[in-house]
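Whiteboard transcription, Tuesday session. T.W. wrote the structure tokens on the left side:
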């Protein structure tokens, strides 16, 4: 029975690598723990219950941590909004190249901007900053 839990752990780990989200990794860890538990208890029903309980415990314990990380990420994004940046370059696709907070960003604007112009970041769409010319 141990081999089935090992295969399950590998499948859950592969799913986590394909679709990261800190969900299936806990099932992979639970499957590994259940694999060792199955060496002690032969009943598949108890093994299944054990797997479910360990999975739920891991999910509940890490939920608070994941929320904290997500909130920290949103705080960093909110800090960028309303910042004034300088247009450093314009790429071949018409995106504005900006150096802000130690990183190169791409930006777009409804109005035409030139190299050296100052612009305010009004929001973020995907990986691009939406800019408005600073008066």
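and on the right, the sequence the group agreed on:
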């Amino acid at each position: 029975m141990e081999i089935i839990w090992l295969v399950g752990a590998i499948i859950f780990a592969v799913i986590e690598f394909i679709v990261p989200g800190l969900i299936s990794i806990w099932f992979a860890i639970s499957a590994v723990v259940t694999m060792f538990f199955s060496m002690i208890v032969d009943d598949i029903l108890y093994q299944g219950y054990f797997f479910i309980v360990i999975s739920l415990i891991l999910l509940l314990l890490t939920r608070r941590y994941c929320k904290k990380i997500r909130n920290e990420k949103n705080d960093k994004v909110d800090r960028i909004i309303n910042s004034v940046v300088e247009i450093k370059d314009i790429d071949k696709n018409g995106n504005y190249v900006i150096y802000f907070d130690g990183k190169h960003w791409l930006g777009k604007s409804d109005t035409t901007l030139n190299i050296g112009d100052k612009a305010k970041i009004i929001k973020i769409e995907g990986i691009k900053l939406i800019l408005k010319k600073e008066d």
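Someone added at the bottom: The chain has a mean pLDDT of 88.
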